[in-house]
Amino acid sequence: MVETRKVQVTGGSTFTVSIPKEWANSNDISAGSVVEFYPEGDSLLLAPTTDEERTRGSLDVTDLAGEELTRAVMTMYVSGFDIISLTSSRITTTQRRTIREATQSLVGLEVLEETRDRIVVRDLLDSSELSIHNAVTRMRLIALSMLGDAIDAIATLDTDMARDIIQRDDDVDRLWMVVSRIFRSTLRTPKAAEELGLEREMCFDYQSAARQLERIADHATKIGHLTLKFNEQVPEDVIDSLMELCDEAQSIVDAAMDALFTADNNKVTDLANDARESVQQIDERARQIDELLRGLDPARAQLLGLIVDSVSRSADYGGNIAETALQKAAPTP
């Protein structure tokens, strides 16, 4: 429900406005309370101050195990809780192992306390020191190197490289969780965005791009798994075409990310539009490779077709990042 208030002048020079009583009561605001103001464009955000520097959360894990328990811990982390208490009448040995593994897979999270019926984990990183820009930049480097290495692994049937690519996906997933955590914190409180030095819309753009990079890493991992299924060399002409396809896909993602990171709106538009146009050329090149696969035995043709699809989809994700960059450069309503 939207409420309006009339701005008044007191003391001849001070502007004042009342706040809704219902909101004040629900946030423990009373006479003498201190509130914080955060200017954001033509808006002014108001939030109550708090002495609590750490956000605490509790979760009953009695009926949780395995992947479900892992996802629960990750969800609490991404939601922004700094101290997470996992409780049960008795936490089993298997649950403890799962919680430790989940904790180790998340950046900055460590077990702080462990008893028979409770495990407390805490984020040891200072949120104000985290950089969403650095996290997304790191994701970009890892995801694109994974994609390039995946095609190299196919060319030489290098199973060690394929397994290394699969393992590197964990690094991208950790960074994705960090980006998601930072983004959600900016939605929850304007103070988080101020500490980051970024507007919330920009944080949303970073989170959107990070999602696409995480998907590119997933497709590189898929190619790594497919490589392990080959027991015969891939024809040289197919490999050459795959490498060209991969180079173009990487160039699209690079151009799109450059557009996202660029402050000059004219450069943003040029880079992003070039990336989007290149995506259409990717589709034509992918069809040409499919023609080459027709001469191979069905089993190999199917595996290679899946690889072509993964590289093409990676280019599509680059196009999505370019679209996000264009929206960033568009006039603000």
UniProtKB/TrEMBL annotation:
One of the record's GO molecular function terms: DNA binding
One Pfam family per UniProt: MazE_antitoxin
GO biological process terms, semicolon-separated: intracellular phosphate ion homeostasis; negative regulation of phosphate metabolic process
Superkingdom of the organism of origin: Archaea
Cross-referenced InterPro entries: PhoU, PhoU-like_sf, PhoU_dom, SpoVT-AbrB_dom
Domain SpoVT-AbrB: 9-54
Listed SMART domains: SpoVT_AbrB
Cross-referenced PANTHER family: PHOSPHATE REGULATORY PROTEIN-LIKE PROTEIN, PHOSPHATE-SPECIFIC TRANSPORT SYSTEM ACCESSORY PROTEIN PHOU
Name of this protein: PhoU domain protein
Lineage, opening ranks: Archaea, Methanobacteriati, Methanobacteriota, Stenosarchaea group, Halobacteria
